[in-house]
């Protein structure tokens, strides 16, 4: 890719101000496959100036002009589908079945949904003698993680473009190629110069420069709670809006009447999705006490059937975790589960049998996990499922809510009255009932330390708008 050493600023591929570069390591082989440019404060400053300038005209474009632009983005995305899947599979080790399925569907469904929202959205409304105008907030700084890379980029750039904002994107330093692909798509679609700008780099320098920049009006961040706290602090001096989409430790509750064979299989699949690195994964499976043994047996059998291997092989169902740091961290969690007395039902420390390179973790199931264990409380971000027993539904809700996070919860059961009642007890931004399909209308975001604000759907769209009240308008 010719643009690996450049940034996309003001509609052009430009040389970075900084000479710094970073090697990208394939998590499945531990081999370097690319070297990319890393930016600094000067690059961000240049990108923000371009975005500020472009905002003057882009914020005045009509709804129809922006709908046409989004349609062209959709078409440019579809042209690159095969390249996108292959890139993501190499970058993060996402099994090709996922990167050529769910990931692409996510981007396309959200593009089409954004077009629908934009078509219908009331940017002006009457309220007494007041007219309320919803106006684009301005220049948005976007900082994204690596685990669902182009998906997270699209989740931010679509509503920003639709509402008339301009933007500066810093993708994760581990997945910069996704930002480059996104820039190429927007360039081909004819997004005007300066509306979208890309600067690659790390969080400490480039991310921090975005959070602090006085000419950025909003930061849209997705990543760890640790970084979200730092970003909120750094952004505080300039009172910019901060939308934080952070980590989670979500519960997955099986009701007594669930079909356990399917429900436990789905629960393992949900936890192991994205190689165990999905922010909303149901990593704590909660089952009725008298079904603990049965659930554990099914989960172990399902986990042992996972196929670890080259992510580009369609047979592979579990790829590696992201990098050496992540691998070490997940290994430490598994060891802590063993040390703290959880029952290891499948997997354990070390690589899966027969695999000698790559950051592959054994698909791991712990049972009879107690609420004071580290593996029950902390976000592991690897293919490690904990199973715990509850007494009754009140106990299940209490256990699900016993966390500093509140990103998601999952419920499987047949009695919909019970399911609905339980869903209202859970302190989480999303409750997924009976393993539903993706609904692009559903907003996504967290309670408590999982963040604030929402992405996706109309609620995600409105995050990019300011409200102006023209009082006495008649
Ligand atoms: P991370 O916080 O390490 O990095 C995310 C991004 O923030 C990267 O671009 C990084 O460079 C940047 N960053 C790091 N420190 C920064 C700082 N001090 N200032 C500014 N930017 C900074 O997270 P990650 O490891 O890339 O992603 C995994 C985490 O993301 C998990 O905790 C996961 O739960 C969370 N996540 C949340 C959601 C959600 O929608 N809630 C979605 C996906 C991932």
* Spans of at least 5 consecutive residues with low confidence: none
Bound molecules: nicotinamide-adenine-dinucleotide
Helix content: 40-55%
Q: How many domains make up the coordinates? A: 2
Give me the CATH fold name of the largest domain.
Answer: Aldehyde Dehydrogenase, Chain A, domain 1
DSSP, total strands:
20
Q: Whole-number average pLDDT?
A: 97
Report the radius of gyration as a whole number of Å.
22 Å
Residues in β-strands, percent = 15-25%
Protein name: Aldehyde Dehydrogenase
Organism: Rhizobium leguminosarum bv. trifolii (strain WSM2304)
Family: Belongs to the aldehyde dehydrogenase family.
Domain Aldehyde dehydrogenase: 13-470
What is this entry, summarized?
With 474 residues, this protein is an alpha/beta fold. The chain has two domains: 2-246 and 451-471, 3-Layer(aba) Sandwich (Aldehyde Dehydrogenase, Chain A, domain 1), CATH 3.40.605.10; 251-440, 3-Layer(aba) Sandwich (Aldehyde Dehydrogenase, Chain A, domain 2).
Explained architecture:
With 474 residues, this protein is of the alpha/beta class. It has helices spanning 41-58, 63-79, 81-92, 96-99, 102-120, 149-163, 176-189, 203-212, 225-236, 260-276, 292-304, 324-339, 374-377, 393-401, 416-425, 457-462, and strands at 7-9, 12-14, 21-25, 32-37, 124-127, 130-136, 139-143, 166-170, 196-198, 218-222, 241-245, 250-254, 282-288, 343-346, 364-367, 384-390, 408-412, 430-433, 451-452, 465-471. It folds into two domains: 2-246 and 451-471, Aldehyde Dehydrogenase, Chain A, domain 1, CATH 3.40.605.10; 251-440, Aldehyde Dehydrogenase, Chain A, domain 2, CATH 3.40.309. The protein has a seven-stranded mixed β-sheet with strand order 14-15-16-13-12-17-18, with helices on both faces. It has a six-stranded mixed β-sheet with strand order 9-8-7-10-11-19, sandwiched between helices. The longest helix has 19 residues, at 102-120. The protein starts with 6 loop residues before the first strand and ends with a strand. The relative contact order is 0.14. The model has no long low-confidence stretch (mean pLDDT 97). Residues 143-148, 170, 172-173, 202-204, 207-208, 211, 222-224, 227, 230-231, 245-248, 279, 379, 381, 407, 446, 451 line the site of nicotinamide-adenine-dinucleotide. It comes from Rhizobium leguminosarum bv. trifolii (strain WSM2304).
